[in-house]
Design a protein that fits this description.
alpha+beta; Heat Shock Protein 90; Actin, Chain A, domain 4; 3 domains; three-stranded antiparallel sheet; 8 helices
Length: 298
């Protein structure tokens, strides 16, 4: 790494001093704890201590450079765009952390921001949606705390996960879990087609006729699951007509093997104890249904 890049990194971190989140602290500690110790019983080949230290330091350095800093510093994440391979991928970093507990109410939230070095517009759209959504639920949480004066109980947890990050697709899942008298979990999944440079919805991939075909596949899967396991329960058409309907904003993602995974909101198709049900449709079954512009999904 050259001196110019080092200087840029130091400057970026000085200008953007964002605290390291607790989960990053924990991951760093876990990495350090996992590094092997040199003991007489386990050594088959004796390496110089200087070499062992160099390997350990290098592992820690790579972890900090590629995991810790991009998740804590916006300026750093922007800077690594120029590094080959890394710069071609979408970076997701935490821009805000919330950690509140008063004995009765708890808030833990990591708010992500998406940076696609090639396609700014869809990333900005995702960031705007995430900001508006999380600002609203966090404001509601603090309003409840003030309304109840520290009494009662309430919890809000916001987490995020990158489900896919390749040169073709980027997928981010945001999960908002709330609990008070009852609990609920809402999932938001965002996609960028990096070839077209567009934000993609379920409706972009499947039109209304194709979605009806997928609905029939899901209903067949529901019936098979209930027949095989008495603990599995979904609403019926008699109870909730059209409950399994798929709209243009349906949550979904692609598994590593190309299978389509449909994700329903809690209570949408089943009782709350079933959580957020997911249904997998084999890649070959949905290949003929997907819009021609996205025929080659991978």
């Amino acid at each position: 790494m050259n001196h110019t890049f080092d200087a840029e990194m130091r400057k970026a971190l000085r200008e953007d001093p964002i605290p390291v989140p607790d989960h990053v602290h924990r991951r760093t500690e876990e990495l350090l704890a996992s590094l092997p110790e040199c003991t007489a019983e386990k050594k088959l080949v004796r390496f110089p201590r200087s070499l062992q230290r160099m390997v350990s330091v290098a592992a820690c350095f790579l972890f900090v450079m590629l995991v810790v800093l991009p998740n804590t510093s916006v300026a750093y994440a922007r800077a690594v765009e120029d590094i080959p391979v890394i710069g071609r991928l979408v970076q997701v970093f935490t821009i805000r952390n919330y950690d509140y507990f008063d004995g009765s109410h708890e808030l833990e939230a990591d708010i992500p921001s998406v940076n696609d070095p090639f396609n700014r517009e869809p990333g900005d759209l995702i960031n705007k949606n995430v900001t508006e959504l999380t600002d609203a639920v966090i404001a509601d949480f603090y309003a409840e705390v003030e309304r109840h004066g520290g009494e009662g109980f309430g919890a809000l947890h916001i987490t995020h996960e990158t489900l896919c990050s390749t040169e073709r697709w980027f997928t981010l899942r945001l999960t908002v879990s709330e609990s008070s008298a009852s609990s609920s979990s809402v999932i938001h999944i965002y996609h960028i087609d990096r070839i077209s440079g567009k934000y993609v919805t379920f409706g972009d991939l499947f039109d209304s006729d194709d979605r009806e075909v997928l609905e029939r596949m899901i209903l067949a899967d529901m019936r098979a699951q209930m027949a095989a396991d008495d603990n599995v329960s979904y609403w019926s058409e008699e109870e909730e007509p059209g409950f399994a309907a798929l709209d243009a904003e349906q949550n979904f993602y692609f598994a590593e093997n190309g299978d389509l995974v449909i994700v329903y909101d809690e209570f949408a198709v089943a009782p709350g104890y079933m959580g957020n049900p997911e249904f997998t449709i084999a890649a070959e079954d949905c290949a003929a249904l997907v819009a021609p512009a996205y025929g080659d999904l991978f």
